[in-house]
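Section 3.1: Structural characterization of target chains.
Under the original work plan, the team committed to producing a structural model for every single-chain target entering the pipeline before any wet-lab resources were allocated. The record below documents one such target. The sequence was received from the expression subgroup and is listed exactly as submitted; it comprises 238 residues.
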Amino acid sequence: MTDASTPGSMGGSAGLPPRPDSQTGEPFPPHGLSYFGGEQQPPDADPTRENRLSWRPEPPPGKGPVLAWHRESRSGKIMGAVVGLALMLALVAGVSLVRGLGLSAFKYWQLWVVIAVFTFLTTSPFTYLTYAAGADWLLVERSRWGIKKRVWLDLYHLTKIDASYGGTTFHLWLYGKDGGFSRSSHELQLDRRIWDLVYNGILHSVANGAQVSNQAIGILQLGATPALKMRDAEHRDL
C-alpha cells in the first residue's frame, strides 16, 4: 500500500503512485505537491464545514463512492456573512474618518442599503458549494435556493491542464473530453484528501499525454515528479 503519510511521496522514482481502485479507493494516493493549506483539524471538529452524511453528494453515474468531500455548514455561512459585514463597516468607517466626517456617514439609510446588498452579494448566504472526489473523479455541486447544478471530471482522462497565480492562491483549469472547469487552489484544498486524489489524477493524465502549460508545470511542481519524463518517453516511442 502506498504511504499516504509522507508529503510529496512519489512512490519511487521509477513511476507514479498507483491509481486507486475505483470502488475501494485503495491504495489512497500520497500527499499531492503544491498544497498551501495548513494542518487540518478533523472534519467533525470544524464548525465551518458540514458533517451530516445526508449532505454528502451522490457520485456521478456509474462511478465509485465518495472518498472525500467538503461543504460549508450553515454556521460557516453565518460566520462568513458576519465577517463580510464587519469588513464592510470598517471600510466605510475608515473612509468617513479620513474625510473628516467622523462616523456621520452611518446616519444615511441609503448607505445601509448599499452595505447590506454588498455583503449579500459577496458572501452569497444562500449558495452552497460542495466539493467531492472519488478514486478517479472530481465533482463540484452548487446549491442555490435549493436548486442544484453539478459538473464533474474524470481525473485520469484529463486532456488539458493550465494554472495561473491570482493573489494569494492559484487557479487551476482542468479539461476532459466533454468539457472542463476552473477552481481556485483554496477551493480544491479545503480538504487535503480531495487535493491528494486530484493531484494523483493530474500526474497520471500528464504521463498519458495531457497538454499542460508551462505555468501549470511550475505551479504544480510537475518537474519534481516522473510524469513529464514518462509523457516525453511515450511520445518518443511513437
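The first strand starts at residue 68 and ends at 71.
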